[in-house]
Specification:
193 residues, 7 strands, Glutaredoxin, globular
Length: 193
């Protein structure tokens, strides 16, 4: 009996209670879904809306951004300099743009920052020259951004990064909330073809 009590005490002592880990809403993104349309949080098979941008400014001049290109697939990435998952996926997204071109998908990649402070975004881009500033836009205001996102997403306050993929015809095909992963490339390529 004494040995049983000792074993029970040792077993209970080995079980540590760990403090719960706090995760920010930007880190709490869903894991990658299996191949197919389930990768997208929202798909638009028929009567898809045309992809537009929120009211934005360019980073170089602070002026109005040019319209979306016609006849190219478009990938809009919503991100911010303070969003860890956004920054981690940026090299992958830039590499995929090149890979998609090799695979016959002419793609316009636009990186729309939701940073409210233009100076913070400009300083970040000055330090990270691998990100082509010609592809970066900044949402002009949080209120206009929320109104615009409500057109496509059920919940405009969704965590970033958010990816909007449109075909060459200009209509939205997929909205994905959450980070990209290496193995997602074939799925994205299939959506954009």
């Amino acid at each position: 009996m004494r040995n049983a009590a000792l074993i029970l005490l040792l077993a209970l002592g080995a079980c540590k209670r760990e403090a719960p880990v706090r995760v920010s809403r930007y880190e709490a993104v869903k894991p990658a879904a299996p191949a197919g349309n389930s990768w997208c949080d929202q798909t638009y098979p028929a009567h898809a809306p045309a992809l537009t941008l929120p009211p934005v400014t360019t980073t170089a001049s602070g002026g109005a951004a040019p319209p979306l290109s016609k006849g190219k697939a478009t990938w809009v990435n919503l991100w911010a300099t303070w969003c860890g998952p956004c920054l981690r996926e940026m090299p992958l997204l830039l590499a995929w743009q090149k890979d998609l071109k090799k695979d016959g998908v002419d793609l316009e990649l636009l990186l729309v920052s939701v940073d409210e402070d233009a100076a913070t975004l400009s300083a970040y881009l000055a330090e990270h020259t691998e990100i082509p500033s010609s592809r970066v836009r900044r949402a002009a205001s949080p209120a206009e951004y929320d109104r615009w996102l409500r057109t496509y997403a059920k919940e405009p306050s969704a965590a970033i990064p958010i990816h909007l993929l449109a075909g060459a015809e200009g209509t939205l095909r997929c909205l994905r909330v959450g980070s990209l992963r290496e193995g997602d490339y074939p799925i994205a390529r299939g959506i954009l073809r």
